[in-house]
Amino acid sequence: MPPFPSRHRAPALALALLLGSAPAASAQGAPAAWGVGGKEGIGTSATVDSKLWFTLARGQVQEVFYPTIDVANVQGLEFIVVGPDGKPVTASQALHRTSLADERSLTYRQESTDKVASWRLSRTYAADPARATLLVGLRLEALKPGPYRLFVRYDPSLAGSGQCDTGSAADAMLLARDDGQCDATNILKGTTVASALAASAGLRDPASFHAGSAADGVADLLADGRLDRPQAATAGGGNLVQLAEVPLGPDGQATLALSFGPDTGTAAEAARASLSRPFDAVLADYQRGWRAYLDGLAKPPRFLADKGLAALYNVSVMGLKAHEDKTFPGANVASLSHPWGEAMDADQCCKHGYHAVWARDLYHVSTAQLALGDRAAAERSLDYLFTVQQKPDGSFPQNTRLDGTPIWGSLQMDEVAFPLLMAWQLGRTDAATWAKVKKSADFILDNGPDTPQERWEENSGASPSTIAAQVAGLVAAAEIARANGDNGSAARYLETADLWQSKVVEWTATRTGTIPGTDGSYFLRIARTGNPDKAERITITNGGGSHDQRAIVDQSFLELTRLGVLAPDHPMVEKSLAVTDKVIGRPAPGDKGGPPRLFYRYNHDGYGETADGEPYTGQGVGRLWPLLSGERGQYELQRGRDAMPYLLAMAATANDGLMLPEQVWDRDDGPYRYGQGTGSATPLAWSMAQFVRLALSIDKGAPVDLPSIVADRYGRKR
């Protein structure tokens, strides 16, 4: 895998210095940025004792989260090799690859080889199941005569901020802390987060400095392969960078520990404890936890092994669990990434990226976990939704931090409805659950069927996917109402659900469509005022421009069939699929000229890289979303057709670490290959959940998440 194109901002200052493009430094150091959105590996212990999550991309460690899954503490941890010629090479600038080292655990290995094949550096990663420590098993192999020396460069951004860290050295360790007072926006204000970086044989010449400053030890090392200038023992109040040499054993091996705690003493003690055991012993415990988790689930479909998909399936299953917080049970974030994080200002605290909880994404994850046999996880998520996220009026925020604090301020009616479906699917008819369900169902009656935002979080109006969720949610709520003796509420919910179901085509499908080559009849992405035949203008809020609503289509109407609101062979569904296949469908990777297997969210989407591949910062070009292939596959299954091509299309978008992305590149030229994950969010929990659901649905012969109570009422007939 070649180094990433130089037009993208380097995620580590060491790379920028090598490229001669280091950003200007202030007294507190160079500006900070998060890692790229496209992760090639993630990990956390399967235990709740280790409240640490890590991510890997482009030959280095990127964000590491502690003490909760929404607090990033690391911009980068990478290695520099100095050979006999004195020329330093960072592992991320060498030829590098990230791969899964064990198909039944989130064990990843990164390998880097310099371009003239002088050395090979291997790093194997594991989270200590007993504490908040990331362990790295290192091995430096000489492919040509040495000697070779290994250095580690650590760029902390403790407590979610890149400009507030103080560093020091003690006992051959590098220590850093952020007391939570520097940044008034810090969500951990008043709480110290500290780290300790240590090695099995101690660190040599540990140094702390501000990134890009005159005292920058990395610049000194990169100049000639030697640390010539006196290195500072401490640095504080800025964009801290720490550097040290890692002594290697006679076999070229060492173990590195990066530990976290509420103070430097606790972090240092955790590092010492983790290093007190052989790396292989801790790795075995880490792997044992994940294998035990997989063994407790339903057996994977047999066809996966025959199709070469068993490892991807396991990683997706484990990835869903890995996105759950361990302090707020049931709170699964959307992704362990900042989309286009390399273009995001990390100087100020707490840019959440996708480290937030959306009720919609949580529903998709929970239905997959329920189908897998992890009922406990789905129960935790429903409890979280009702006890942490639900507002007094029964609505749910667009998204929240883990403690339920809203982030974005809009309302999406499908997110109010999905918890009702989850309650029915889990058989939760107890009085306490019913009280929560009633609040949300009544809110839907009072505020639906239109929505301030549909599932793409941008525009208001009548959305087929949002109406589908509300109808299904009301039918589920009616059943729970009857179980609690409230027949009056049940009747009101069903009366409204029946009306909206009977009107959804009229409200959201146009007969005067403007897309060439059609008869003008198809579902719209959204009808701005509930009149799909009117020439209403819609301004797409992600920079996609202003267009006649009749010229914008997506495949979100498939929610009507997936949720049982319309029969799969409904004429308007079939007509609309022909339109969307033509307008937003593209072939699967490796099948140029083939039928559409990958899909855009909608035409005119602006949420994606710019035309030449630069990061999205408010305007761009929407790319292909693999999860939509999974949704289409479930529809094909409902029609009795072969869904396997859509599962294979999804699988073809996974990267070397078997991470499924949010978006993939849609051209034959540019910074990525066709079908490769872009800089948006990889992995995306929704994508992993959809892959798992489609695989299980293919095995069952029918969608595993179809709510039978809704399908029995509406979706078994045209």
Overview of the structural elements:
The strands form six sheets. The protein has a nine-stranded antiparallel β-sheet with strand order 6-7-8-9-17-13-12-11-15. It has a five-stranded antiparallel β-sheet with strand order 5-4-10-16-14, covered by helices on one side. A three-stranded antiparallel β-sheet has the order 1-2-3, with no helix packed on it. A hairpin with a 5-residue loop joins strand 4 and strand 5. It is of the alpha+beta class and 718 residues long. Helix 7 packs parallel to helix 9 and helix 11 runs antiparallel to helix 12. Mean pLDDT is 92; it is low at 1-27. The longest helix is centred in the C-terminal third of the chain and has 22 residues, at 487-508. It has 18 helices and 24 strands. It folds into two domains: 13-294, Beta-galactosidase, Chain A, domain 5, CATH 2.70.98; 408-715, Glycosyltransferase.
